[in-house]
Design brief:
Length: about 160
Amino acid sequence: MIEDVTHNRADLQFGQGFAEQLGDVRLSACFMCRACTSVCPITRLNDSFNPFRFVRLALFGYIEEVLESGLIWFCTNCYACQEKCPHGVRIPDLMTALKNLAIKTGYAPREVLLQMNIVKDQGRIYPIDEFDNKKRGKLNLPSLPVSCEAVSTLFNENSE
């Protein structure tokens, strides 16, 4: 679990490489003020969720521990942490990268994979029919296409 990591297992080289792969996420700019954690709505619901800790663990190369914990899936990418950070550390981008890595390495929860497959096959989580488009028309919203083949194409292009 995330709380149990020990310094002798740190892989600083991997952490720095991971941070560099993310581009301008600015992980190393974090100076541990914990402003991100103070504004995160998830921390009010789950004491184990801690944006600051994710930044530090990623920098020190504890990626596998973060992925194994499953806590990254609680992040809603609300951007409160990034807005509050005095140094512009882009934690939502880190969380997205960690989620993508979790999917690639087999750490994603079954429910996430099921939703991904539905989106891949249907183009959205739930199907749109003419009834939905009639409701949208009454609200002066444009109709949505019943089929979303472009989404499947994107999935196929990115899976290669």
